[in-house]
UniProtKB/TrEMBL annotation:
It holds the Pfam family Response_reg. This is Response regulator. The keyword Ribosomal protein does not apply. Keywords: Phosphoprotein.
Length: 136
């Protein structure tokens, strides 16, 4: 029995054009993509879909919660999910990010996005952070 499952990425970005560009690049590379434009919408998607493998979030988000808050929630509540945070601001204090999170500078080329996501997913599989699947 083939246990292959398409990897699912949740893209959390308030700028619609950036979110669409990231989602298109990821879909073109064969990933399933869910989108959210705020942290609260992302939390809803995380509760709605159990097979999310990675959250890719902007740090600066509208509302009282930002991407760092989301990264901390994901790391605490769903440690099997990879976390990549993106920001165009340099010199930002990222000391509150979970140790497992990776940073992606914006703007970035589609190739850089795909390498970062691929390395994060591959690294999680190799370290055993990927959930085990039951064999039928």
């Amino acid at each position: 029995m083939n246990t292959f499952r398409q990897k699912t990425i949740l893209v959390v970005e308030d700028d619609a054009l950036i979110r669409f560009a990231m989602a298109d690049a990821l879909e073109d590379a064969g990933y399933a993509v869910l989108e959210a434009s705020s942290v609260l919408e992302a939390v809803g998607r995380l509760g709605q879909f159990e097979n999310i493998d990675l959250v890719l979030t902007d740090i600066d988000m509208p509302g009282s919660l930002n991407g760092i808050d989301l990264a901390k929630m994901v790391a605490e509540c769903a440690p099997r999910i990879g976390i990549v945070v993106s920001s165009a601001r340099t010199g930002r204090d990222l000391s509150e990010l979970p140790a497992t999170a990776r940073r992606l500078a914006k703007p970035c080329a589609a190739g850089t996005l795909l390498i970062t996501v691929g390395n994060m997913l591959k690294g999680r599989e190799q370290t055993g952070k990927e959930p085990r699947r039951r064999s039928a």
